[in-house]
Amino acid sequence: MEYNDKLARFRQGHLNPFNKPREEENPREDREQEPSKESPPGSPLRVSEFQYTERVMDLGVSEDHFSRPVGLFLASDIQQLRQAIEECKQVILELPEQSDKQKDAVVRLIHLRLKLQELKDPHEDEPNMRIILEHRFYKEKSKSVKQVCDKCSTFIWGLIQTWYTCTGCYYRCHSKCLNLITKPCVRSKVSHQSEYELTICPETGLDSQDYRCAECRAPISLRTVPSEARQCDYTGQYYCSNCHWNDLAVIPARVIHNWDFEPRKVSRCSMRYLALMVGRPVLRLREINPLLFNYVEELVEIRKLRQDILLMKPYFITCKEAMEARLLLQLQDRQHFVENDDMYSLQDLLDVSSGRLGASLTDIHTMFAKHIKLDCERCQAKGFVCELCKEGDILFPFDSHTSVCQDCAAVFHRDCYYDNSTSCPRCMRLNVRKQTQEPGEDK
């Protein structure tokens, strides 16, 4: 029964006794009950003037306003909800069949059962780990209430609800939403396809997606009917509000081409992918955009420091003291710095922009050079003397005023190396030694 109908029936059954009856409804009866004008003011009134029907005089006192409501809606835990459900069942059995009160009690019972289903305790045999679509879900023990389910987009009440987190992509959801998941783990995509989309917002249009979400295929449109279409700045595709929460992330293509670090709106899947890829060295800047080094001076300094560290690496590998001190572990967060000098991660570029990478790498470079040139005698013995001028201090290939022969790796003063038009003295000596040894080997 509709609300208006119930309200009309209520008003008909509980009339206000203080409202005077209209004369046009029953004028004859009103005239009979009207007291005579000739009667003295102190004469008693007729009895019929106060003989209102029971329906008119009902002020609602007959109802039990102070009784306990059917079904305890203020229940805060599972036990109270179950008690309220049992009480509601008993009330339904006691009320007359097909009565309005019984129908209202049935509605209350339905609401209580729905609330119990939402707050139902997990089963004791519920596994601690489940694998679904390459997700490795583990049951969480945290009681935080600030998490949001990535499937149903509702809050996770950690005190009374069980929830899982994927250890690969950190996908969070209720235990009841596990079987409804349709998104595979992003970690698997990172493992099989470790590369970025390097085109700035490659949009193809909503019609190319058949006006459906690029991930869950739900109907979407730009008019927000039936659902709002939200564009991901990383993929250029459109998503529904359940797959796109307006999360912000730095776009790699904009960084490489425009040195733009302003966060843009991306979908949930793109946000997880970028978060997992942020530390992977997959950007070869010299091939993607070599002109970037002409406009960003910090990148030139970082490249020089990385080249020097690669020249220091052979000293540490053969030095016992350096191996015991584990000097190379200073770069354990950026292992690619001791492997090559042209691969960068998105986190490296973020740190270059903020100035953190240049400062930390300069400190590490100073510490490495101090060990080789001052602290360690073994490393000092591996230095070079300029064979062109045969003057000056011991030279090392990572010194700023030196040049290294590309053939024999001999170190010279830079001025001496470029002023001397002859070939490298060490290369000439090695060639003579090789020629003198070959005849002896033939005999």
TrEMBL record:
Task: Extract the CDD domains matched here.
Answer: C1_DEF8
Boundaries of every Phorbol-ester/DAG-type domain copy = 134-185
Compositional bias, Basic and acidic residues, is annotated for: 20-37
Region Disordered, annotated ranges? 1-47
Q: Does the keyword ATP-binding apply?
A: no
- Record's PROSITE patterns? ZF_DAG_PE_1 (PS00479), ZF_DAG_PE_2 (PS50081)
Decide whether keyword Transmembrane is in the record. no
Keyword annotations for this protein?
Metal-binding, Repeat, Zinc, Zinc-finger
Q: Which domain of life is it from?
A: Eukaryota
Q: Give a short account of what the protein does.
A: Positively regulates lysosome peripheral distribution and ruffled border formation in osteoclasts. Involved in bone resorption.
* Entry similarity comment: Belongs to the DEF8 family.
Stated name of the protein: Phorbol-ester/DAG-type domain-containing protein
